[in-house]
Amino acid sequence: MALIILFVVLFVLLLAGAPVAVALGVSSLIFILMDGLPSVVVLHNMVNGINSFPLIAVPFFIMAGHLMNSAGITTKIFAFARSIVGWMHGGLGHVNVGASVIFAGMSGAAVADAGGLGNIEIKAMREAGYDTDFSVGITAASSTIGPIIPPSLPLVVYGVIANTSIGQLFAAGLIPGMLMAFSLMFMVAVYAKIRNYPRDDRFVLSVFFHTLWHAILPLMTPLIIIGGILTGVFTPTEAAIAAVAYALFLGVFVYRTLDLKRILRVSIDTIDTTASIMMIVAASAIFAWILTANQVAEMFAGQLLSFTDNRVAILLIIMLIVLIVGCFMETLAAITILTPVLLPVAVQMGVDPVHFGIILILNLMIGLLTPPVGLVLYVLSKVSGVPFERCVIATAPFLVPLVLVLLLLTFFPQLSMWLPELLYR
């Protein structure tokens, strides 16, 4: 009975618009009081939930992304991507995807990608004669690559909750991220052929080297982060600190676009975002403890297995649950709630926790492009001036390649597991 009340209170608070951390904390507190446990258990588990060294990476990756945006580095990335793939039919659509792949190695967040590159990309595509709906749709879809290619804030949070190697998760995200990029570029090519979108300027070697020269230092950021982690020079947490130091070096000493005022504003934004994330993680820790102590995952697994013992069917059911939750809940909140329940079921079916983390995050990224929450759509609606409802319609066709990649990764785990097995196992 107490478990039923736990979930009822949680969903009522979420539907009422309460912050996720409040909904998780209040519902957990009510359960604990009903169960006769001392209320101090809540504080104890919340503190333990965020007392984790890997979580230190979260504020630093957030700050690195903010610094890159504030320093004007996104314009250099866009220009470099344009010099490489702009010559193709629908060139700026391909540039859109390519820039997101590059920026993914710096920020690790879809919303940061949409906010930082979105304004530049949509403006350039409109001026070149591309349909507004196409411009918004490909910008939204390409932003989901950010949390798959390392570094990735959602993968850090998942790794902490699932007690899984963050280094392996980062390695596992490289190939899936590139698959997402190629599938979206194929979609762009189809649109370009049907609508006869223009090429950008032809490929010019001198322009390529010119943009490379201006972008070479920002392009070193993903190499520093990913290379440092994969070679063992950095832990993911240390790599996040190195990324902030490097971003400050570029913004203050190289490009001289960061002054004390901007750094202070970036720091305040970082504190604000980090506080929200940590409150969710802390509140979810007590919620996860309740689920584990009451064997909710085992009960859920039993119900699923009583329905079917087919591995494919169970994986499809799990993915459908995640997809539905992702439509209504912010990504990090969904990770903290779903992981303790779904991961044991997936492991029981022979799914590696690293592989499950990749398909879970990709599934939730698709949720960022769907109403009613759709944070990426809200951001792009703001930067493009396009109504939210129109953004939803514009993005819908681009969900097809992303869902196909999700299914491909779900049923062919080696696509995500080959690299971590090569490097770590």
Summarize the structure.
This protein has helices at residues 2-15, 20-34, 40-50, 57-70, 73-85, 91-104, 110-127, 132-143, 153-162, 166-195, 205-230, 236-254, 260-293, 296-307, 311-328, 331-348, 353-367, 375-384, 388-395, 399-411, 414-424. It has 425 residues and is mostly helical.
Task: Please explain how this structure is put together.
It is a single chain. By secondary structure, the protein is an all-alpha fold. It has one domain (39-424). Helix content is 79%, strand content 0%. The protein contains 21 helices and no strands. The chain has helices at 2-15, 20-34, 40-50, 57-70, 73-85, 91-104, 110-127, 132-143, 153-162, 166-195, 205-230, 236-254, 260-293, 296-307, 311-328, 331-348, 353-367, 375-384, 388-395, 399-411, 414-424. Helix 4 (57-70) runs parallel beside helix 12 and helix 7 runs antiparallel to helix 8. The chain is globular and about 70 Å long. The N and C termini lie far apart (44 Å). The mean pLDDT is 83.
